[in-house]
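Suppose a classmate hands you a notebook page containing two proteins, each written out with its sequence and a corresponding row of structure tokens. How would you begin to make sense of it? This section walks through that situation. The first entry is reproduced here exactly as it would appear on such a page.
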Amino acid sequence: MGRRAHRPLLEEAREHAQRVDLERAEHAELAGLDLPTYELELLPEGVDLAGLYRLARDLRKQGPI
């Protein structure tokens, strides 16, 4: 495997690291507002009825604000 074959993977890793950094910064900014929040998981398969039930379950577990 040549160097060129590694470039797409390295680019993907770099983009992922940037997304993680941005997510952390935004999370810290929201936490600094001292307002109640909920956290929901990403539904990679898209939102369908089962996904909505999963999100509802997660919200119930986190309790009322």
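The notebook's second entry, a different protein, reads as follows.
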Amino acid sequence: MRYQIRILRKMAAHRYKFCVTILLLSSALLFITLLFVTLSDHLTSKDADKELYMRRATQYLASEDFKNAEREYLKVLRLFPGDAVAARELGVIYFDQGRLSKSYEYLQQAAALEPENDTVKLKLGAVYLAVGVKQKAKRAANSVLTRDPVNEEAVLLLTDAARSTQDIQDARQRIEALRQQVGDRAVYEVALGTLDLRQLDTAGAEADLIQALQLDPSFAPAQFALGHLYWMRNDAKRADHFLAMATQHARLRSNWRIGYADFKRANGERETADLLLKEITQKAPDFLPAWVDLMNLACREGRVQDCVKIADTILAEEPTNYAALVAKANLKLPLESLQEFARLRSMYDRVPDLHYQIALKQLSIRNVDQAIDSLDRAVALDPDFEDAVVLRDELKLIKGDAATAIASLTELIKREPPRIGPHLILADAYLIQHNSGEALATYRRMSDLFPKDPQPALLIGMYLARQNRPADARSAFEEALRIAPGYLPALSQIVKMDIAENHREAAASRVEEQLAKSPTVPSLWCLKAEIDLAREDYDAAEAASIKAIELDANFEPAYLLLGAAYVATHRLQEALEQLTSFANRNKSPAVLLQIAMIQTDLKDFEAARSTYEQLLTVEPDSAAALNNLASIYTEKIPDLAKAAHLAEKAWKMMPNDPYICDTLGWIYIKRAYYYRGLSLLEQSAHKLPDRPEIQFHLATALYSTQQISAAITVLQRAKESNQEFPDREKALQLLDELTTQAEQVETHW
């Protein structure tokens, strides 16, 4: 009985445990079910929110309301950080706004999620191209064209990325292959025309672009490219027609609209250009390229406050905007600017243009070696960065390394499409090597490569003039004018030759003819003033100079000529006032030099000293300023040690200049370095035999080295000169003393 009771108790205990277990399992199942339902509701809610945000974003995009579209896509990414569509669309929005840093960030994210998406590839490629990484842009375009041979964006990206001769050849072959594969299309003709233009084949480019419009009369890229071609040809009417057609149906946020505004401004329609840009910035204030265009214009025109204000507007939209950061850095003083550029390197160290900008700023403080290092960095990042290559090689010429410059430029010319800049520096390099034959050959090759450019003929003429071949030089200048009638540099050279050859009426006739055609060109009025000065018609020279100033209040040559007219008529104070008014606005070395010379003529030597020292802060290597200031410290404000330092620096730069040799030689005589002074003064007197003051200096040196007879001969020449000079009385006194001394010696013997 007890055994049965024990068994019954055990069974009851097991039933209790079983019931408890069942109850616990049921509760757990109920909790899991409720949790699943809650999570399902939550997930369903997130999906619903995403769908709502995406739908809104799509609607905003359709109406180009980028700000609200951006907000909706960001909401999606907060819910689903790995959403490829939201990342991609944000990248595209930022690209269309010109916010390249943000665009790159989201396009990179989208590329990781959708590695084969063509839109992402092309936009990333365009970002790479914008910052100078052309090879990545080219790879992106080729990748898309492999799958989609008619993708217009890819064709145009490939074309834009082709800059070197090899890249242009590769792009041309690829496009020709695509054309054979799928037939001709307008975009292929635009691409071929663009490549032709890059190789200076304007006739071929025009034919290709016209063919593009025959295939598709409304194809905007063809219209814009053809308009740009006519702009290059100075055919303003046809350029305006096609550029206007291209922008007529362009999106509000379009670089074509900016290009059209730039065209209008370049053709004198500034108000129209300003209205076009104002319309963009008012209707699409988030479109940064329009603001950048306005900022660059303000910076170029010296409107510093406007430049800073617009840059701040851009940076409020995109704090890392490259163009705005560079513009603000460039407005600072050189050392502060370089510090700012150093900070920018943390963001943009692989952007070639940044290192180019740093080099320009280093040059502004004459740090040539560091500038070359920065340019080396830019070229290492982009070997086809022509501006950087040319500037670097130009600096190497200054450093005396012509051989390296020649090798680099020769390679660049082989690799790049024809450009006149590298040829110009290459010719200079040959001249520095005294290889005039190669320099002339380079100029002649330029004439063949650029038959419609007057520069090669001008340079040939200038070379021939230096070779004392005036007739041949004149023929070359005439050829430059045949290529480009009214080309001012060539006209100026012919006018100077006419003046030198006493053909002043012929010179006047040439200039009057051009003034009748272009009366608003300040340079022409300055040429007229030069002729009037040569004819000693100082009133006419004054009037012509003033007319040039009225046309351009900051035109330096006009002030120099006006000053010369006043000096010629002994109106020194008026000359000083006009030149000082210009110098207060523009620290021009030439104007400061003329001011100091007038102050010297007025015997205001302290003012002249101050002006020369101011000039040397602007241009430390001005040999004229160094020499003239040394003269003041020699004669007027005696400090022979300082005078010697200045004159020696000038002489090292121009050791064969007779005036500098005279200044330094005279300082050496005053410091009792007679033989060193004699050598320099002999060189100076040989080159300037008609300058009695220099003859007096030489005679003093000869006397100081016990060469009495030679000193008398030189002093006799100075006495016979009709020119007045400050030390004439001293020269005559020394001549009398030496003559008497010589007679006494002769009598004694």
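A careful reader of the second entry would note: The CA atoms of residues 149 and 178 lie 6 Å apart.
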